[in-house]
Amino acid sequence: MEIIVFQERGSGELKVAGVENYSDGITIKKTISIDEFLPDFIEDPEDYISSAFQADLVLNYLKHPDLVDYIMRICKEKGIVIVSPGKKGTGFTPFTCCGLGRNEKLGTYGEKFGLPEYKVVLQGDRIKEIQVMRGAPCGATWDALQEYIGCCVDDVLTRLPRQVQYFCSADPSGFDPVSGKSPVHFAGYVHIAALKKAIEEAGEE
Questions:
Q1: What is the pTM assigned to this prediction?
Q2: Are strands 117-123 and 27-34 parallel, antiparallel or unpaired?
Q3: What value does the CA radius of gyration of the chain take, rounded to a whole number of Å?
Q4: CA dihedral in degrees (25, 30, 31, 32; nearest 10)?
Q5: Cβ 34 vs Cβ 67: under 8 Å
Q6: Domain extents for the chain?
Q7: CA–CA gap between residue 93 and residue 4 (Å, rounded)
């Protein structure tokens, strides 16, 4: 699966690294970075981003609203699947990267990245094994688990959200006016929900 990433001033770097570290069969074909100063209003977005691109999937980490609208429109015209976390518009627009649901249009990217999924093996009230089946492209899902093997379930359930929020690359200032939650809070919530589900379904050795 070939992916093109659009970003501003390194806004997608951690996600690109996570996709490369935690996936098989996914190629970041190209990363297009806009690093220059941008005016408040961009009349001709094609001056900054050429429409001459093709990919199976576009990951959109642009911030300027005129560039975001432009890249969404071009992807729609070309029939390219686009994921734009935290944005509004066409394509897939989850609140955070780890809020992306499953959809067959997302291909192998959607199988590996999005709403977190764990597989857990218990030994009594402790976690013997834990495997990430699906997680955040920034890598927080994997990074937050490093110290939990052998730990008590209750302890892990208490500490995991804080660990995820520590590794999360989302902007904590981006509050949703409806829920009152920031992307970082949301990330902690979906990870703890995923772990609770995995524990409920866990086998024991």
A1: 0.90
A2: unpaired
A3: 18
A4: -150
A5: yes
A6: 2-93, 117-204
A7: 17
Spatial separation of the C-alpha atoms in residues 110 and 124, rounded to whole Å:
33
CA distances for 173 relative to 57, 186, 190, angstroms:
28, 12, 18
Provide the CATH topology of domain 2-93. Answer: Rossmann fold (3.40.50)
Instruction: List per-residue pLDDT tens for the chain, 205 residues long.
Output: 899 999 999 999 999 999 999 988 788 999 999 999 999 999 999 999 999 999 999 999 999 999 999 999 999 999 999 999 999 999 999 999 999 999 999 999 999 999 999 999 999 999 999 999 999 999 999 988 877 888 999 998 888 888 888 888 776 565 555 555 688 889 999 999 999 999 999 865 5
Q: How many CA atoms lie within 13 A of 124 on its CB side?
A: 5
CA dist 82 and 4 (Å) reads: 10
Q: How far is 131 from 177, CA to CA, in rounded Å?
A: 34
How far apart are alpha carbons 36 and 168 in whole angstroms?
Answer: 25
